[in-house]
Amino acid sequence: MSKERLYFEKEETHTVKTKGYIEIDYDFFQVFKSILSCVADVKNGNSLKLLLYLMSENSDRTGKFQTSQDVYNSYNNWLKNKGSEGISVVTFREYIKDLFLAGIILKVSKGSYRFNPLHIWGDSINSRKDLVIELKRNKELI
Asked: In this predicted model, what pLDDT tens digit does every residue of 68-82 receive, in sequence order?
């Protein structure tokens, strides 16, 4: 008696049910959308890199930050650690001016700025405008 060898494949489907939670950070999406809304107003794309650095590394919890020599040095070191070339103090100031002229940051005093709540805030536009008016009334903005 001769033997015949037959090939077959077996496929099984298993249903796995998993339950859990996914955490969504709405603040992240708010900031991301805020930055996207400002992109068209910025003349130099490298200004946006500085904006992201200031937001993540150098602002306090109220959105206020300095543009001192220490901040410049810190930003330059950060760039170099990321594999980019450093920039001059003049270029750093040009980027700050670009962000200021685009209305993304507001000048508080010499060398001191705050992120413009009309851009970097997720609350209603009326509450953002109220804050800007209050900051101006209290002479916290120039």
From this structure: 999 999 999 999 998
Q: List pLDDT tens digits, range 29-70.
A: 666 676 677 777 788 888 988 988 888 888 777 778 889 999
The whole-angstrom separation of Cα 132 and Cα 120 is: 12
Q: With respect to CATH, is domain 43-137 assigned 1.10.20?
A: no
Helix residue ranges per DSSP H, the chain: 26-38, 45-53, 69-81, 89-101, 125-137
Q: Contacts for 13-18 with beta carbons within 8 Å, 24 or more apart?
A: none
In angstroms, the CA 35 to CA 80 distance is 23
Q: Which two three-digit tokens encode residue 87?
A: 């920039």
Q: What is the pTM of this model?
A: 0.65
